[in-house]
Every structure is written in structure tokens, then in C-alpha cells.
Design a protein that fits this description.
Distance between the termini: 27 Å
Order of helices and strands: HHHEEHEEHEHEHEEEHEEHEHHHHHH
Shape: elongated
Helix content: 55-70%
Number of strands: 12
Length: about 375
């Protein structure tokens, strides 16, 4: 076995330039595969981070239609409901339209209680709750724009006209790596008071209700009971788990996700063709050597295994380097996209998929030349020119 491994390694290093270029191509392919898979994971990050004990109630027609504030008390009375809060999408512009980040007007106390994954220092939380013009922001979005505690953040309203200024009272961090740190929260009451003064039809309206439940197993039953309570009303509701709510946004761009997945497989297929060509050339050049080994008494499996080992060595070497490079490349990419992807981290599943892809490429590339070598007659090999 050790002799076979040494022979395979020497064969691999015989044409250093060819082996090096093939390895380089595989490294680039593995990095590309890892980044594409990470992009897909980032698309589903919101759904993956969703809690099983939270439901989302929205307008049954569309999310763009608000719900009356009066629904809050009726939802709270539904059996199984533990707590309730509400939020409204603001959709403001910070300095320039390209500066996008999620902005929500919330009922601060109950909302933060329902989202313990948003970790906020106690003093900052107290300051935020006391200041009706106060706001909190995620660590990532604060770093993106250089915000500090006490800064005044101006937002130009699109849904709510005018310029709205908020004082940054806190910067939260995520409890774990999947927590969204790109959001911006402020007091719904301050927004509602202003819209009332303007006699806006949006006053006393909220975008969604966030419902906390005790038993995740009763989510479907509680959701149905909530919706039944508003059946045939002017604003019927649709209640679903937080994960289903998040997946609804993903479904809007499902075609893009499908394309990214397809491209990741195409990348592996291309590098498989390159690796297979390299191994075929190597096997063809050594037909006389393998025939000589057969003439000396080695079985037909010996040269075939040498080809397989050589291919696997090359693939595993390139795969490990590619996986190692995926991490800094993902960090670099995350820095460039800013808040577009709230979570952009290489997952263990992506690493295992990349390593498995390397093994598949190594084995698949060696199948044809190894089989040809196994079936080769000694006389044909000795008479070959290569």
C-alpha cells in the first residue's frame, strides 16, 4: 500500500506544471462553489433563524395593506397566545437610495421581549425605552455607516412623507451567528402621533402583529383561531409561523436561488471535465510503464489503483486549499455587499459539500482511465507510444 501511494505521488509530481494548473482550476471551482452555496444559505438565513414560538399575523390580501391597531386586544384573548407585539415597515431613505437597510416602527418593550436574540446592553435599552424619538440599530448596520450612540439618524420617508430624525440610543448584537444585525428600530407611537396630526389614513394601523405562543405544536390551531376571529371583516388576516412568513419572501426570488444552485453544479461539472482530461493524459502517457508492471507480476488492479490514488490526491489537496480560501473570500464578499445579506457565513454543511464534491471529482475523473488501464492487455501496452 505504501509503495502504491509513493508511486501515485511521484506520478502526480512528474508534470508539476500540468498538475499545478489542474489543482489551481479545482481550487477556484471549490471557492466558487462555496461562495455560491453560502449565498443560497444567506437567502434562507431569516427563515433558519425564525423561532417556533412566534407567529406573524398580517393582512390576508397582501402585506402592503395594514391592520387596525384594535386587533391587538382580540388576538391577545385567543387561547394559547402568550404575548403580542406589532411592527410597521417604514421604508425610509438614509442620505441616498442605495443605502438600504430594514427599518421598523415597533412597540419597543413587548417587541424586544419577543426577540431575545437581539442583545442590547441594559442601559442602552432603558435609554431607548425612555426616548420616544430614540432608535436602536444592529451592530452590522451601525458599523456600515459609522454610527455611534447619540448620533442623529435622518430618514427621508417614502411611505410616510417628510424627514424623520431619530437619536441612536442603542446598538444591539446578535445572540448567535444567524441573527440579523442590519435592522433599525424606533418607536411606533412617535410615528403614529405624527400621522394623526397629519390626518393620515395610516394612523392607528400596523403592518404585522408578532404573536408569542407557549406551545409550538399548537401553532396551526392557534393561527386558525386568530384568522377565524377576523373572518368576513374589512381586513381579514393571515396568520402563519415566522418561518413560513420568511419563506414567503424567499419564494418571491426562488428563480434566482434556483439559478445559483444550478451554476454551483455547473462549476463542479466543468472542473470534473478538466480533471478527467488531466488523468486521461497521464494514463495514456504511462501505458508502457503500467504494462511493464503487469509483466513483472503485478495484478491489473495495481496500475488502476495508482491512477485512482493519484486523482484523489490531487482532488483532496485542491479541495482542502479551496475550502480554506472560502472563509476569507466569504468575509471579503460580505464586506462588499454591506447590508444586502444580513448573514453571510460559510456553514459546516457547505464545507462538507465542498469536500464531498472534491472527492466525487477525484473519483469520477479516474474512472475511465483506471478502467481502461485495468482492461489493457500487456502486449498492447508495451507496443503503445506515449
Amino acid at each position: 500500500m505504501s509503495y502504491l501511494l509513493k508511486l501515485s505521488l511521484r506520478n502526480l509530481l512528474r508534470h508539476k506544471l500540468r498538475s499545478g494548473l489542474t489543482a489551481l482550476g479545482m481550487i477556484v471551482a471549490i471557492v466558487a462553489f462555496g461562495l455560491l452555496r453560502t449565498a443560497v444559505d444567506a437567502w434562507y438565513a431569516g427563515a433558519d433563524a425564525a423561532s417556533a414560538t412566534r407567529l406573524i399575523t398580517r393582512n390576508a390580501i397582501s402585506l402592503v395593506f395594514p391592520l387596525p391597531l384594535s386587533y391587538r386586544n382580540k388576538i391577545r384573548q385567543v387561547e394559547g397566545v402568550n404575548s403580542i407585539s406589532y411592527a410597521d415597515w417604514f421604508g425610509g431613505v438614509y442620505i441616498d437610495e442605495k443605502n438600504f437597510f430594514p427599518q421598523f416602527a415597533i412597540e419597543p418593550s413587548s417587541y424586544l421581549d419577543l426577540y431575545p436574540e437581539y442583545v442590547l446592553p441594559k442601559q442602552q435599552k432603558r435609554d431607548f425605552l425612555r426616548d420616544r424619538k430614540g432608535a436602536i440599530a444592529g451592530r452590522k448596520v451601525a458599523a456600515e455607516y459609522g454610527w455611534k450612540i447619540g448620533d442623529v439618524i435622518p430618514l427621508r420617508g417614502t411611505i410616510y412623507p417628510g424627514t424623520w430624525s431619530y437619536v441612536l440610543r442603542g446598538i444591539y448584537r446578535g445572540r448567535d451567528a444567524k441573527t440579523d444585525e442590519t435592522q433599525f428600530f424606533f418607536h411606533w407611537e412617535y410615528l403614529n402621533e405624527t400621522t394623526k396630526k397629519q390626518s393620515s389614513p395610516l394612523s392607528d394601523r400596523v403592518g404585522i402583529y408578532v404573536v408569542g405562543i407557549k406551545e409550538p405544536g399548537l401553532a396551526a390551531e392557534i393561527s386558525e383561531n386568530i384568522d377565524q376571529g377576523f373572518k368576513n371583516s374589512l381586513a381579514e388576516t393571515l396568520t402563519e409561523t415566522e418561518k413560513a412568513f420568511q419563506l414567503g419572501f424567499v419564494a418571491m426570488t426562488e428563480a434566482i436561488v434556483t439559478v445559483i444552485r444550478a451554476v454551483s453544479l455547473v462549476v463542479i461539472a466543468i472542473i470534473l471535465a478538466v480533471a478527467a482530461n488531466t488523468m486521461a493524459m497521464s494514463a495514456r502517457e504511462r501505458r508502457r510503464e503500467y504494462a511493464t508492471l503487469r509483466a513483472l507480476g503485478f495484478g491489473p488492479y495495481f496500475p488502476a489503483l495508482a491512477i485512482v490514488y493519484e486523482s484523489l490526491m490531487l482532488a483532496v489537496f485542491a479541495g482542502l486549499i479551496g475550502i480554506a480560501l472560502t472563509y476569507p473570500m466569504a468575509d471579503f464578499f460580505a464586506g462588499k455587499v454591506g447590508t444586502l445579506f444580513p448573514v453571510f457565513q460559510v456553514s459546516p454543511q457547505t464545507v462538507w459539500l465542498a469536500f464531498a464534491a472534491s472527492l466525487v471529482v477525484g473519483l469520477a475523473a479516474a474512472v475511465a482511465p483506471a478502467w481502461g488501464c485495468y482492461r489493457m492487455r500487456v502486449t498492447d501496452g508495451l507496443n503503445s507510444i506515449g
